[in-house]
Amino acid sequence: MRILIGSLYFYFISFLFSKVNGFLTQRTSPVSSFPFYNYSYLNLSSVSQAQAPKTARALNFSYNAIEKITKRDFEGFHVLEVLDLSHNHIKDIEPGAFENLLSLVSVDLSFNDKNLLVSGLAPHLKLIPTSGASGPSQIYMYFQKSAEAALEPSAPAELLPHLEDPPNPGNVNPRFRQRRTEENKTSPPAATLRPDLCGAPINGLLDLSRTKLSNEELTAKLDADLCQAQLGTVLEFNISHSDLEMDLLSLFILFLPMKDIQSVDASYNRITINNIDVEAICHFPFSNFSFLNISNNPINSLETVCLPASITVIDLSFTNISTIPANFAKKLSKLERMYVQGNQLIYTVRPENPSATPRPPPGTVQISAISLVRNQAGTPIESLPESVKHLKVSNCSIVELPEWFANRMQELLFLDLSSNRISMLPDLPISLQQLDISNSDIKIIPPRFKSLSNLTVFNIQNNKLTEMHPEYFPSTLMTCDISKNKLKVLSLTKALENLESLNVSGNLITRLEPACQLPSLTNLDSSHNLISELPDHLGQSLLMLKHFNLSGNKISFLQRGSLPASLEELDISDNAITTIVQDTFGQLTSLSVLTVQGKHFFCNCDLYWFVNIYIRNPHLQINGKDDLRCSFPPDRRGSLVKSSNLTLLHCSLGIQMAITACMAILVVLVLTGLCWRFDGLWYVRMGWYWCMAKRRQYKKRPENKPFDAFISYSEHDADWTKEHLLKKLETDGFKICYHERDFKPGHPVLGNIFYCIENSHKVLFVLSPSFVNSCWCQYELYFAEHRVLDENQDSLIMVVLEDLPPDSVPQKFSKLRKLLKRKTYLKWSPEEHKQKIFWHQLAAVLKTTNEPLVRAENGPNEDVIEME
């Protein structure tokens, strides 16, 4: 094993090179320092053109146009040990061209002119013949021999059973062996390195990311001798973001002491892959190695990549690779997850027989690669491991997949073809469960798409679809993203009955119209379309919908039934919604998040419920509530909705009606109390009777009235009135209107009272305590008072039959009180001599004319004289 490690390590040293003009890559190892210079692929016509340094110990001039080797080409290269001149056009080598290269032990002249003859080589020099295989395996055998010369003691040849001719240390140049031993004495020995320089893993992770270590420092931290105890426990290794400039194979050689390593992250470095094919020696002792991340490195090509076959996950994103070669699938036969996004896979034209292609004349422009769609010979994906389950090749300039893809990739579950130039949905394996083909140029979904009977997730956003045919979709589909296309009609049919999440945002849809119930749909994103209204039955069609995005549409109102009651999250921002009403949103009892933005709200009472009640719901999160703005009324345009100051009293019609009713009842109660206190009802009733009597227009004679007086008395005083008053007055010749005699039968009582008062010169009131308690006497007094006011004549005569105490006259007889205080009245006396005076005065008063009331009212108050 030690010999194998040394062999691989020296192989790495010899063939680590850069791509430009022999840039020196020097590496110090625990064994020695080995300067190597690479001048391959530079189209050199002679060795001297390279101007290689005389201190070089290994030179690579392969793949050039060298035709002749002269003696002067290698003058001064006293320490040169390895020389590769393969793949040139060498026809002649001057005698003695290599005789001064005393340290030279290996020359590769393979793949040159078939007539090339080599003579005069030193006895110790080993020549790799042109008939043998090209460099890799033969050069490997040389370094195997060099390792044996450098390591003490030498390992027996039996440790290398895979080599047909194990190298013999005795064949190695003694001078080379002696010089290497001396170099080991002068070089810093590995034993002098301090153990604290070793990388120390934590919980199996050795993290050297972002450390910017040089190659020498990294080698010291991963020293196989001093750090074996630490490296043996490493399970994961991270060297990302370190500006590491190294060949991938040499990096893996550093991992050889990590026997249980499982994961390596070497992303964001400057790791390259040697263009020498080392497939014959590409064997690693890793059994658990499964994850490799070499993304964002200048790898460029996978033709000669050498990786452990146990890898199951590899990340080759952004590595500048242009093809996935035919031998890639064989190298990683256990691969399950592969990431290749961010590369530019190139479709090229390749001639079927390169040797038959004639050499173009000088000055001819030769096209070596051209992008060509549907060119089977030049497909950039030549092979893929059939075990791959997860494949991501997004943003790789792919225009189509190889014809073998659908039939060969039968274990593929996830495929990401997004951000490519695919214009037609390719044939895909039926095992596929998730497909992402977003950001492409697809215009139609073909009927064969239904054959993907295991597909559950489909992303085709940002394409050019104009129609959606649900009948072409697999019935197993659960998540579908068709956003950012050009759909005008959204068909939600029974073919999508298992769909759980649907994104149709960014299209040209004008209306959502489910053709049937979708019992599984829980997430619907229809934002940024042209929807102006929702159907009334939408809530019944989407009974299980929990997340609904309607933002960026033209909806002005959401009516009852347009939203499912099962909603938990709703986004209605950036619409033309003017109000949010309880009739619609009050039914959403499960809603926990509401996003609402806009400046079109009508800040009137229709918004009161939202501003004062709904917005304060502790179980509801309302996003954007602080930025809502009013558009109506005009005086509040642009102001914040939350400062609209909408009050319950201003907006509740019920409360307004209740307050109005309460005020009316209060007023009625106050008026009723006042009326009760001041006999208001009686006055109202009297007014009504007066008006009714006036409307009847009883005939009256203002000048020649038929009666001299009308007697108003209570029933209690009827005897005195009839036996004394009536008899005496009529005996004296006065015409008296007496209701028991003169009221017209069949006429209303009030009408008769009004008639008698209007047709009598005087109205004589017989006052007593029973008078003020008589209802009819009240009517007669009221009518008489109104007659006085109507005719402006004082025609009232007061006869006090019994004394009236001041508090015995009710409040409604306030006029009577005033009359008794202001006007002269006659008082009946039981004494006979006083009765004569009473009758005389009464007859005199009846004979007088009625004085105008205005003069009496405006003149001085008359003295109240009690006639006795």
UniProtKB/TrEMBL annotation:
Database matches in SMART domains: LRR_BAC, LRR_TYP, TIR
Annotated TM spans: 653-676
Gene Ontology terms, MF aspect: transmembrane signaling receptor activity; triacyl lipopeptide binding
PROSITE patterns noted in UniProt: LRR (PS51450), TIR (PS50104)
Protein location: Membrane
BP terms from Gene Ontology: inflammatory response; innate immune response; toll-like receptor signaling pathway
PANTHER family: TOLL-LIKE RECEPTOR, TOLL-LIKE RECEPTOR 2
Job description of the protein: Cooperates with LY96 to mediate the innate immune response to bacterial lipoproteins and other microbial cell wall components. Cooperates with TLR1 or TLR6 to mediate the innate immune response to bacterial lipoproteins or lipopeptides. Acts via MYD88 and TRAF6, leading to NF-kappa-B activation, cytokine secretion and the inflammatory response.
The protein's name: Toll-like receptor 2
Organism: Gallus sonneratii (Grey junglefowl)
